[in-house]
Write a structure and sequence with these properties.
heterodimer; B: alpha/beta
């Protein structure tokens, strides 16, 4: 039995790895909003259980075993969100929080039934792909905006922020799927990014730049 | 319909018509407002909202009219308080005509808001501002063509030079008075969406559902398809429920057909139409980037930006030290020779020479003198500099560079601005945290701002530590405070639930700040300092004076001794000074010397004759860290409520005692090598 706390760790590592962020103890602690000390203690235990490998300078990496569990959790999370929003009419921001609880309790049989009921959804309400039951993830060939280099041009594919108000705000200034953007400047040490949208340049904090997924166009 | 906003009622009294200025941030909206109203403006607040509206009245070309300056926003929705306030003021018809101020250099993005206003079908005039900058950038805007396309009057203007203002007023008057609603042309959205809007507005009409705020069925239909939370929640009653159900159905059709939610669809179509319009009216020749743009680039460069920032900060503090110091000395001289004698005569003639009159003198004489000799020179100079940094656009560069550090302490780059203001006086800085979007950020920012040494605390650090121990020690105090601030911020970021909303901030090349705007900005901030802080300082000084003159204060010595003497290693009398520092920070130091003379006799020449260097250092450190003055606490109460303000106050005492005590122990350990 894998505890909900383990599942949260694995899920976090999965997100950090797909965002291209080095999974340092600090990054994990920031993501889970707990202390770095308890993170490093738990990571040690998980390394013994062979869910992760931890090397002092490269950070934490998921093993194949860890990744399989992480994908299961991610699927249950995204599927739950879809269910909560589509079938129960729950708001996005609440759906995300509720899904965080549901994801730890769904059995395989319930998952199969949910897939059927929802008509095999490909993405969660935020546009992230729902992994299949066999653990495959459709690759939409997108990268976080934060990983682009200065002068790169790209088109926004999806924005994975959980807060609808934030999404609406971003949309009102033109930051929404299909918008063409250009990276003008990046602050050092994983700092802010300046992107040009039309005639306007916006400085975006790193968290926001990591939630905007783009496909390079030149 | 002006109930609730008495200030707007007041300006309506002698005005023919009222104008509301709407527009994106940084388009010169405030410049236009100031150009129209001068300094005599007021602020109006909707009950329960922290975002305020500036209102004023004006007469121009023989017309008397009122002006409301709405918060600068990119859109009118319900996603943030400033957007909601701007929209409320427009929908409640606080004004007879809305002026959409747009930036000629960036028409496409600005047209989004204009289209939104047209969708709301409000009486509208477009002010196409910054025409001078546009022409310098090789941009030509065909304003007559734009007017034709939008169906509203478009006035080309350069508000900083007053150009176009007369035309604007005439146009506004025509629209406002004749109710000449020059039939704005509704935005042309793609067929599917236009059809959906039509279908929904017909349904609203058929159901006899009367739209709130006197909106037309079409305007309501657009808002509902935009998934506007406020208006969806206002679909009440049986008819409302049926409308809500239809919104759901039509929304689902749009989503099936376009692959995105109807809300996003409306936004996308509006952007597309804005883009289309701007291409029809703009001619652009690219010119070489001016020198200021190159320098602007440097300020955000990782390698060049940091030295520029450090150099800039040093320059600011040098300026404050020299210019502020000079002004301060001049003011003291003026006060002691001209004002003070008269005040003394007046007070003694009223209340004699007893404890009462002496206490009152503490407040109105010494208190006011201190408020103004710290306030005017340091706070005023600092706000002047801050306004220059802000208006030139440099603070945006600082926000960009510091975002990653600020994120680590639970905030984001934008909060650099209130932090900088905190070094002048904490009070307006705490008020300035209103720019932050969520309560968690506000609590963190307010807590950290109370730790930022304001000019009164700088007076203690300079007057005691730099003067008696040297510059290096004063720098040490600052470094310790800086480290404490970062640590506290980091701890709060980890412990408080939730997360930072992240920075989304427009950046633009440096602009030449206009003197008029700078003066006004400085004055508005300074007024905040005077209104909030000065009464507190006077009252605090009277209380302090009474405790001092009646000699009750000595009763407080003993209970404090455990902490002050045993843990911090300070003379017992210093405890009283620290306690009274709550009323007025910089007084902690002056009082210390005064009490030392009373207690030990007139042979005490200066601090060093009854305190060691180590004690002076610890004293300054503790005085800088513990509870901000009463004025700052009352600002905290106003912004965060009693509970949070109280917790912050208690927390800073704990931090001050811990840090001060630790410094005392460490210094005792290394004493032989240090002093």
């Amino acid at each position: 039995m894998i505890t909900p706390s383990r599942e949260d760790y694995l899920e976090t590592l999965f997100h950090l790895e797909s965002e291209g962020v080095a999974s340092t103890t600090q990054a994990i602690a920031d993501h889970l909003q707990i202390s770095a000390a308890s993170v490093s203690e738990n990571i040690k235990k998980m390394a013994i259980e062979r869910f992760v490998v931890h090397s002092p300078y490269k950070g934490v990496k998921l093993t194949a075993k860890g990744r399989a569990v992480a994908i299961d959790v991610v699927r249950r999370h995204r599927l739950s969100e879809r269910f909560l929003v589509d079938k129960l009419g729950i708001k996005w921001e609440e759906a995300h929080r509720e899904a965080h609880r549901l994801e730890h309790g769904l059995s395989r049989a319930v998952e199969v039934r949910m897939f059927e009921l929802l008509g095999n959804p490909e993405t969660c309400p935020h546009g992230n792909p729902v992994p299949t039951l066999s653990g495959k993830i459709r690759d939409d060939h997108s990268h976080p905006l934060a990983s682009l280099n200065v002068h790169d041009r790209a088109r926004i594919v999806k924005i994975t922020d959980e807060e609808p108000k934030q999404l609406r705000y971003l949309a009102s200034i033109g930051l929404m799927p299909k918008t063409q953007i250009r990276v003008e400047r990046k602050a050092p040490f994983g700092g802010a990014v300046i992107v040009r949208v039309g005639e306007t340049a916006y400085a975006l904090g790193n968290d926001i730049a990591r939630s905007i997924w783009v496909r390079k166009t030149g | 319909m002006t109930d609730g906003l008495t200030e707007i009622g007041k300006i309506r009294g002698h005005a023919e018509f009222v104008i509301a200025l709407a527009g994106n941030p940084n388009v010169g909206k405030s410049t236009l407002f100031n150009e129209l109203t001068g300094l005599g403006s007021m602020t109006a607040n909707y009950p329960g909202k922290t975002v305020s509206l500036n209102v004023g009245s004006s007469s121009h070309g023989g017309f008397n009219f009122g002006v409301i300056d709405l918060p600068g926003t990119y859109a009118l929705g319900s996603v943030s308080e400033d957007q909601a306030v701007a929209r409320r003021a427009i929908l409640e018809k606080q004004a007879d005509v809305v002026v959409a101020v747009v930036d000629a250099t960036n028409l496409e993005r600005n047209l989004y808001l204009v289209l939104q206003l047209i969708d709301l079908e409000v009486p509208l005039v477009v002010a196409c501002n910054l025409m001078d900058i546009a022409s310098r950038q090789g941009i030509r805007v065909d304003t007559p063509r734009l007017a034709e396309l939008l169906g509203v009057r478009v006035i080309p203007m350069t508000a900083t030079r007053g150009e176009g203002i007369t035309d604007l007023i005439r146009a506004c008057r025509a629209v406002a008075l004749k109710k000449e609603h020059p039939l704005p042309l509704l935005p042309v959205y793609e067929e599917g969406l236009s059809g959906a809007i039509k279908e929904l507005s017909d349904f609203i009409g058929r159901e006899r559902f009367s739209p709130p705020d006197g909106l037309s069925p079409r305007s309501l239909a657009v808002l509902l398809l935009e998934e506007d939370e406020e208006f969806l929640a206002r679909l009440r009653g049986e008819a409302g429920k049926r409308v809500a159900a239809t919104v759901g159905e039509i929304g689902a059709v749009i989503e099936r057909r376009s692959g995105e939610k109807s809300g996003l669809r409306v936004v996308r179509e509006r952007h597309r139409f804005a883009h289309h319009l701007s291409r029809l009216v703009i001619r652009k020749n690219s010119l070489d980037a001016p020198l200021s743009t190159t320098f602007w680039g440097w300020t955000m460069d990782p390698v060049k930006g940091l030295p520029i920032l450090i150099g800039g900060l040093l320059a600011v503090f040098m300026l404050m030290y020299h210019v502020g110091g000079f002004l301060s000395a001049m003011f003291d001289l003026f006060w002691t020779t001209v004002i003070s004698p008269h005040l003394r005569d007046l007070v003694t003639s009223l209340w004699g020479v007893g404890v009462l009159s002496k206490s009152v003198l503490w407040g109105v004489d010494a208190g006011l003198q201190a408020a103004f000799s710290v306030g005017i020179p340091y706070v005023l100079v600092f706000y002047g500099v801050l306004a220059v940094l802000e208006d030139s656009g440099y603070l945006n560069s600082v926000a960009f560079l510091s975002d990653s550090l600020m994120t680590k302490i639970g905030l984001h780059g934008k909060s650099v601005i209130p932090f900088m203001a905190g070094a002048g006086c904490n009070v307006p800085a705490i008020v300035g945290t209103r720019i932050l979007s969520n309560r968690r950020e506000k609590i963190i920012a307010c807590t950290l701002i109370t730790l930022v040494p304001c000019s009164a605390r700088t007076a203690i650090i300079m007057g005691a530590v730099a003067f008696f121990l040297g510059w290096a020690w004063a720098l040490m105090v600052y470094l310790i405070i800086f480290a404490v601030t970062l640590t506290v911020g980091r701890l709060m970021a980890v412990m408080l639930p939730g997360q930072s909303s992240g920075m989304i901030m427009e950046v633009f090349p440096f602009r030449m700040p206009r003197a008029k705007i700078l003066f006004r900005k400085t004055w508005v901030r300074f007024r905040e300092f005077i209104v909030l802080a000065v009464p507190m300082i006077v009252v605090g000084s009277i209380v302090l004076g009474w405790l001092y003159e009646s000699e009750y204060m000595w009763f407080l010595t003993k209970p404090l001794s455990l902490v002050v003497h045993d843990w911090l290693g300070l003379p017992e009398v210093a405890g009283i000074c620290l306690l009274f520092g709550i009323l007025r920070k910089e007084l902690a130091l002056q009082l210390l010397l005064a009490l030392a003379i009373i207690q030990q006799g007139p042979h005490i020449q200066n601090l060093l004759s009854f305190m060691t260097k180590q004690q002076i250092f610890v004293f300054a450190l503790v005085a800088s860290l513990y509870v901000p003055c009463l004025a700052a606490v009352s600002a905290l109460v106003k912004e965060l409520g009693w509970k949070s303000a109280g917790m912050i106050a208690v927390f800073t005492i704990v931090v001050a005692v811990l840090v001060g005590g630790t410094a005392n122990q460490v210094l005792t350990l290394f004493h032989p090598w240090l002093f």
